What does this fold into?
Amino acid sequence: MREFEITRMTAADVPEVAALEAVCFSDPWSEASVASELENPLSLWLVARDTVGLLGYVGSQSVPDEADMMNLAVRPDARRQGVAQALLQALEAALRGSDIRSLTLEVRAGNDPAIRLYTQAGFRQVGLRKNYYFHPKEDALILKKEWEL
It folds into this structure.
C-alpha cells in the first residue's frame, strides 16, 4: 500500500484538484468552482498527497445531520492502492466529528469499480436519478451511508 497523507484542501491544492477533475470526469468542475468550495462554510474537501504530489481528493457539503459527497477522484496511476478508501474513511471521520449522521452520493450506474468501493464502505442504494449525467448520458445511483454518533 502506498504511503500518503490526508489533509484539508487549501488554496495551494486547487490547481491540482481542478486538473485531476479534468482527467477523471467528462464534465469537470472548473478551477474557480473548486476554489469557491474553500469559501463555503458547508464544504469539506480533503486531499491525499505523497512525496510526489496530489494522489486524489474528496469533497462534501453538509447541512445539519447530513452531508452530500460532491466528488471523489484518484489519479489514474494511484488507483487500487487504498487512496479512495482512505479518503472516504477520513471524510466520514471528519463528518462524524461535526455531528453529521449520514453521507449521500451519486455514482454513474455503469461505474462498477466505484460502486464496489462504496458498497464495501457500507453504502446502500436508496434511489435512482434518471439521465443525471451527461457526456455520456447515464443514470445515477443514489447511495447513502448512515451511522450513530
Summary: The helical segments are 14-24, 31-36, 83-96, 112-120. The two ends are 30 Å apart (CA to CA). Residues 83-96 form the longest helix (14 residues). The CA atoms of residues 104 and 144 lie 4 Å apart.
